[in-house]
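Lab meeting, item 3. Inverse folding demo.
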């Protein structure tokens, strides 16, 4: 790849990724100061945990589910549109669009315009994934949720599971080390961005309050409340959920594997 184009694609991705639609939406709604004061109550304890990750999910805690969805879509578009430009118009034979993908996530996590304090980047990763492989954008969230809820038995795994399956998916879909490497970089960046939440969980685990904190977390946003309801329904199935999960996962995977799909 041309070093100058590589630098340009990285800068474009980073500068666009640094746009925080969560903060813009809150500012338009006159609630931009509220995001720095978000706290998650710890049930049964006179304590709260400050929210330190500022993205669509944090904005939805203040503005509601519809606003959170709109902000998430804008976060997807800020990476998807430049990736379309680089992949299908400017340099279709090169991997500059993957550079845009990674650098946009870096910008979202550490935004230049907002003191380098951003979000986790779920929407950015997903928006780029849809441009790279639309089949993966359909399949991986389904596989992740089914594995998390039916097999692992935890909504937390359902929440992040599709990310963990991404390198495996790209490898068996392409057998190309380039896609495998970029997907691994995205995972590392994402989990690096979740360090504040991991530290908070570790703190409450040491204090014996992790379950109370998790209850507060699950009730803190529309996204987590929805996942909690899903988990409760699945838990009601008892041990049958494991059989159902494995069968449904296998059926969906075989269905998509046998489609006559265009290569990435």
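The presenter then showed the designed sequence:
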């Amino acid at each position: 790849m041309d070093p100058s184009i590589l630098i340009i694609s990285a800068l474009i991705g980073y500068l666009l990724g640094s746009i925080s639609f969560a903060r813009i939406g809150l500012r338009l709604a006159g609630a931009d100061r509220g995001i720095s004061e978000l706290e998650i109550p710890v049930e049964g304890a006179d304590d709260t945990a400050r929210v330190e990750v500022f993205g669509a999910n944090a904005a939805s805690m203040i503005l509601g589910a519809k606003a959170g969805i709109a902000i998430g879509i804008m976060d997807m578009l800020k990476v998807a549109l430049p990736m379309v430009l680089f992949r299908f118009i400017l340099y279709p034979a090169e991997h500059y669009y993957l550079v845009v993908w990674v650098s946009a996530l870096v910008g979202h996590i550490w935004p230049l315009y907002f003191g380098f304090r951003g979000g986790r980047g779920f929407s950015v990763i997903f928006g780029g994934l849809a441009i790279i492989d639309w089949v993966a954008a359909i399949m991986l969230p389904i596989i992740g949720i089914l594995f998390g809820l039916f097999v692992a038995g935890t909504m937390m795994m359902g929440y992040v599971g599709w990310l963990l399956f991404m390198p495996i998916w790209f490898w068996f879909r392409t057998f190309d080390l380039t896609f495998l490497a970029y997907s691994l970089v995205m995972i590392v960046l994402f989990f690096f961005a979740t360090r504040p939440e991991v530290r908070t969980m570790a703190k409450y685990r040491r204090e014996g309050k992790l379950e109370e904190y998790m209850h507060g977390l699950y009730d803190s946003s529309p996204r987590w409340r929805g996942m909690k309801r899903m988990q409760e329904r699945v838990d009601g199935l008892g041990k049958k959920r494991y059989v159902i999960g494995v069968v449904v996962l296998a059926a969906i995977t075989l269905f998509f594997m046998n489609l006559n799909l265009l290569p990435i």
